[in-house]
Amino acid sequence: MMRAALPVASALLVAACSMPRPGSVGPSLPSDPEDRSMRLEELHDRVRAPGLDDRRFTAEQWWSIVEPSLGGAVTSEEIGRSAEGRPLRLLRFGTGGTTVLLWSQMHGDESTASMALADLIRWFDEDAETDPVLGEIARGASVYMIPILNPDGAARFQRRNAQGVDVNRDARRLQTPEGRALEATVTRLDPDFGFNLHDQDPAIRVGRSDRQAAIALLAPAFNEARDVDDKRLRAMQVSSLLVEAMTPLVGDHIAKYDDAFNPRAFGDLVGAWGASTILIESGGWADDPQKQHLRRTNFVGLVTALHAIANRRWGDYDAAVYDSLPFNGRRLPDLLVAGGTLALPGMPALRGDLLIDYDRPLLREGGRISDVGDLEGVAAQDTLDATGLYLIPFGDALDERGALQVGRPARFLLTEDSAGTRVRLRFDGSPRGR
Ligand SMILES: [Zn+2]
């Protein structure tokens, strides 16, 4: 992405101020979004927690990486145990009057924000005494975090907890230990702002466009009528701030999440309990299977938001920026194999396209057949041109009678001849197989 060069005047200003260490954000955050983003990306390069390059990690791994940053400016307390007995911990940075609560990975396989929180905690610990921007945050806000609220789900890299329950549909009944720990913390802290940090299906598009939604934001409704009171308006303003902060990193790949009220979901209920709550969903970004670019985008957005909350500048933002975002749109299928001839054992060959969705879309693994037939004109994330070639399904792509079945693993040879001797590509759940 092209960036405007740092204006000479502000570069001189930065040089003239006493800089405690290279890479500090201070003396204050630039107001120009591009400049600010550049500065925060440099910061991120320095404080980025090591050992989280793969988005699949356990809570134990995460805590072992973060543990050295605790006990100083960032304090820690246990607030409960998961269904399988893993500790749930609440971290705190800052002593200011505005209380902020962030929680991540309530869904065990949604780890992007947990990586960004590790980076944030490292910055809090390392620069608490030296970075003026961090000083402003610490004086203006008390920042609380519950990282990896669903550690049992994280251990399996699955959405639900060990009891098989979606913790984010347990806000009303409070039957899961994870849901109870969050509810008790919200009741105790009575936060002014809440950040509910998730990942969404990377195949979702922005509105009616073909653009992948990198980020979706929501200032959730607190009742069926979707009324906007002062607290929801503040959440909308902070969401507008996030749009501005994240645009330098993801452009117009930002959508608005569906705002129907869900009384079983925590984001909605925390809002109903009185906090200005913001949902951040990290979706997909091209060639970013481990979501490292979106981790950075979360970091930049959260630093900007915490700073504006601490110095009460969130009021400068117009809720209309958030409000005018297109909603999350359709989800594009992962792969279209177009133009080939299907050769099934003992059946007449036919002109047939295949649509494939991956169980692990970011890695393009675990492909399953989702449609067969005339799929000309169907939009997909990727297209494989099979014109002039034969598709010969094999293995469990076929049922016991040798018929091709939707829902089964996508396994086929792409060949130049119907006999299947001249193989161009072997697709074995993944296009990489050759
Ligand atoms: Zn989620």
Q: How would you describe what is shown here?
A:
It comes from Gaopeijia maritima. InterPro entries: Peptidase_M14 (IPR000834). Residues 61-170 form the Peptidase M14 domain. This protein has 434 residues and is an alpha/beta fold. The chain folds into two domains: 28-330, Zn peptidases (Aminopeptidase, 3-Layer(aba) Sandwich), CATH 3.40.630.10; 335-428, Urease, subunit C, domain 1. The chain has helices at 8-16, 33-47, 59-66, 112-127, 132-140, 151-156, 177-189, 230-250, 266-272, 292-310, 319-323, and strands at 74-81, 87-93, 98-104, 141-146, 193-199, 204-206, 215-218, 254-256, 276-282, 328-331, 335-338, 341-342, 350-351, 353-360, 365-373, 382-385, 390-393, 411-415, 423-428. Helix 8 crosses helix 10. Residues 1-20 have low confidence and may be disordered. The chain binds zinc ion (ZN). Zinc ion binds at residues 107, 110, 198.
Characteristic key phrases:
Urease, subunit C, domain 1, alpha/beta, 434 residues, Aminopeptidase, disordered N terminus, binds zinc ion, 11 helices, 2 domains
